[in-house]
Predict the structure of Xylose isomerase.
Amino acid sequence: MMTAFFHDLAPVRYDPEADDLAFRHYDPDEMVMGKRMEDHLRFAAAYWHSFAWPGGDPFGGQTFDRPWFGDTMELARLKADVAFEMFDIIGVPFFCWHDADIRPEGSSFAESQRNLEEIVDYLIGKMENSRTRLLWGTANLFSHRRFMAGAATNPDPDVFAWSAATVKSCMDATHRMGGENYVLWGGREGYETLLNTDLKRERQQAGRFLQMAVEYKHRIGFKGAILVEPKPQEPTKHQYDFDVATVYGFLKEFGLEEEVQMNIEQGHAILAGHSFEHELALAASLGIFGSIDMNRNDYQSGWDTDQFPNNVPEVALAYYEILKAGGFTTGGTNFDAKLRRQSLDPLDLIAAHVGAMDVCARGLKAAAAMLEDGRLEAMRAERYAGWDRPEGQALLNSDLESIAARVTGGGVNPLPRSGRQEILENIVNRFV
């Protein structure tokens, strides 16, 4: 039975010449580098921003008035009905959730657990009549006041225990729903002040917590990837999962670098002082690239605005790194993005996803064209060609004394060579 929210909007079609709402660049069946565009991009809609977020910001409260807002199971089912209508309208193959997005909070852990199990049954029923599947699930361990000092890193062992039980229930739900990944995002795993913080203790707690999650994955036979999502700050002053490099050091310390991959968000990369493509390239070089949250920040704001992507050159450089890494396996492109708080209408929600999917499609095609053109990679290989020669390889197997003797004997006289940055940027601009 259809709800009234989207007013019987028809599924969005691919029509490059359309004057109304349509995909002008995203054709799911278009072949890009030997693979369907849909299979490259693996789009997912975020349950929280699209259906649970009330339209607030740091200075103002709710602006959205959705018919499913409330704390009953009846309204949770209505929210699911509307969500799957949107998934069908825009044709996304995947969606993602936090537990708090899909079920009402109970008066006890046991009641919240029963609510989760009931709504998961309902969502599985919805999936049976839809092509949309679960990309990943995760636990909301940051919104409720009990998590004000963190979850895994909390100074109260009872909060650690509550958080561990919540992750177990969410992993079970993700497994039941056939999810392809499970994400851990430490929304408040950090500190406000060092005056009351034991960094070593909290780091050890976080490491053991993640080890437990990995152990449980294997115990229940979950075949998907465990993903960690880095974020440098906001709401805490400093978060322990600051960026890809920081998380990799953490994984190495606790023996998890072969077990855990990264879910990298564009907005978080910018907050950490990096570009999105930097974080993607680094994760790929370390062998921990998994999935992405695709959004953008407003560069005139100093916080995480979670806007839908609309910058094709930025997106193209991101997909260039993803294609170079071999593309997604279990991961995908999740729109962890929200409407502006003045965009009140149901059509705004559809148009935001359609526009974002078109931007990603344009970016993907530009990235594929750059790779197939080959000039960027050829110039990169030329720049490092000396290291592929016997003399370059020998350096890495030598020692300081031997190298110094060679330089002193006149065998080395390096001259500067151009990095050709402007030429490389001009090549990129031909495609975007």
Observations:
- The CA atoms of residues 44 and 94 lie 4 Å apart.
